[in-house]
Amino acid sequence: MSKHKFSIVLALCFLVLLFVIRADWGWYILLFLGFIGITSWGSFDIRLNYFLKAYSNNPNENDKRIALTFDDGPHEMTDKVLDLLLQYNAKGTFFCIGTQIEKHPDILQRIVSEGHTVGNHTYSHSKSFGFFSTNEVEQEITQTNTLLENKIQKKSLLFRPPFGVTNPNVAKAIAKTGHSVIGWNIRSLDTVIEDESQILERIKKRIQSGGIILLHDTSLKTVNVLEQLLLFLQSENYQMITVDELLNISAYEN
Ligand SMILES: [Zn+2]
Description:
10 helices; binds zinc ion; three-stranded parallel β-sheet; 2 domains
């Protein structure tokens, strides 16, 4: 049973209890607001595993191994990211958007040929993703999987929802497509924070073995942060590997 279903059962039990003890109407409102609050929190924090199981890190990792993940490409900036990864002998995981794959198929090829992993990050990366029906979510995923299959001849098994949003519809769609959902436990906020050193410090503070770092290969700012981050990880003797290797799961269908 998912945490969401458990919450529904719990809320219904409280509802019956309030009815039995003839509670004041204010308690019903409190119960309602509490349920809405917990559900919203569960939607926006993928680490809670509220609606579905998502991998946010590998808590059993004993070696100094960490996964760098890059969302929203392939993009003009991806080449600079790939140059840095090559320079520091690091491997990364790229969660690609379908419309971006159509714009930069050559960059996608480079990502794969240099030994990095590619995952599915929907076709349109719509801001309304959280309101999509199960069918719409499924279509977003299969459309990008078909694109990936055509371009790199691999059937992707890794999925990261846009904005890390999960809900019952995303959970149902994932159950159909069979993807592993990949979250993160180290959020760089590289699309929110302007100051590069602030982003770097934020990541450095949270570095730990088995961690999954969320970055975006869409700005020069992130490229600059990445260079400093790779220097730091190298000096700390970290090995930068793909998420599938870190989590010991398959990135592609055989
Ligand atoms: Zn994204």
